Amino acid sequence: MIEIKHVTKTFGGTKKAVDDLSLTINDGEIIGFIGPNGAGKTTTIKMITGILNPDEGEILINHIPITKEPLKAKQEIGFVPDQADIFLRLKGIEYLNFMADMYEVKQSLRPQRIKELAELFSMENALNDKILSYSHGMRQKIVIMGVLICDPKVWILDEPLTGLDPQSAFCLKERMREHANRGNCVFFSTHVLEVAEKLCDKVAIINNGNILFFGTLKDLMDQHPHCESLETLFLEVIQYA
Ligand SMILES: Nc1ncnc2c1ncn2[C@@H]1O[C@H](COP(=O)(O)OP(=O)(O)O)[C@@H](O)[C@H]1O
Ligand SMILES: [Mg+2]
């Protein structure tokens, strides 16, 4: 469960990147975080994951305040950032074991999980190469595998499907659904509306740091009955905020 309570963030100047934002994401739910470029998605996600501290407000991960007990809260979180250029000097297999060490995954569980994930994401032949040699999509896949091998309760993914091949995107979406069905929560940003439509239990639409809508897509469509497509609906919500 993620509780975001009246969170605000300003990067110098007066414009608030995130403005008094509140959201509660319950266990068992996949929430899509949708908004145009610069809306405040990544800033919100960085605050949820403890990378940035909010100027005001607080965020609880499974009831643990991320700013006051960051290590304890982070143990609950699996995070896929929007840019995956990390730990480039490690080999893929070293990175996966490093993540498993951080999250205290038992040694006995690792070989099976690594084998399964490598097959799922077609990475069997790449694990002994340095991440530096990976393509953009492969770097993204190894970061995703690093989360899946540890399997923390709360998944937070910033544009996880951008740059993935269709097969890998399909596998990730399936894993997200399974994870939520097992009573965990998944919060991910996207600008691909069709993904949100198919995958999410609810969507949170953000623009200029404000939540404009939070609920099911059905509720959203009921509120705007004249809109013919999700695209026109989305543009209307963003425009007339
Ligand atoms: N480190 C930073 N320094 C200054 N401004 C920033 C920084 N990060 C984000 N911003 C600004 O905050 C706003 C929200 O950005 P961001 O959260 O990255 O949006 P999104 O992920 O929705 O595209 C934008 O106006 C962006 O320019
Ligand atoms: Mg972003």
Commentary on this structure:
The protein is α/β, with parallel strands linked by helices. The chain has 2 domains: 1-76 and 153-166 and 179-241, 3-Layer(aba) Sandwich (Rossmann fold); 84-152, no CATH class. It contains 9 helices and 10 strands. The two termini are 28 Å apart. The protein binds adenosine-5'-diphosphate and magnesium ion. Magnesium ion binds at residues 41-42, 82, 158.
Write the topology of this structure.
Blueprint: E1 2-10, E2 16-25, E3 30-34, H1 41-48, E4 56-61, E5 64-65, H2 70-74, E6 77-80, H3 92-102, H4 110-120, H5 136-150, E7 154-158, H6 166-181, E8 185-190, H7 193-199, E9 202-207, E10 210-215, H8 217-223, H9 230-239
Parallel strand pairs: 3-8, 3-9, 6-7, 7-8
Antiparallel strand pairs: 1-2, 1-4, 4-5, 9-10
Helix pairs in contact: 3-5
The structure holds adenosine-5'-diphosphate and magnesium ion.
The site of adenosine-5'-diphosphate has 10 residues, from α1.
Biggest β-sheet, characterized?
A: 6 strands, mixed
- The chain-level mean pLDDT equals 95
- Give the DSSP E fraction (strand runs of 2 or more residues): 15-25%
Query: What top-tier CATH class of the largest domain fits best?
Result: Alpha Beta
Bound molecules: adenosine-5'-diphosphate, magnesium ion
Helix content: 25-40%
The SSE order reads EEEHEEHEHHHEHEHEEHH
Uncertain segments? none
> In the residues, how many domains can be counted?
2
Radius of gyration: 18 Å
CATH superfamily of the largest domain: P-loop containing nucleotide triphosphate hydrolases
The overall strand count is 10
Number of helices: 9
Structural class: alpha/beta
**Broad shape:** globular
* Termini Cα gap: 28 Å
Major sheet: arrangement of strands: 6-7-8-3-9-10
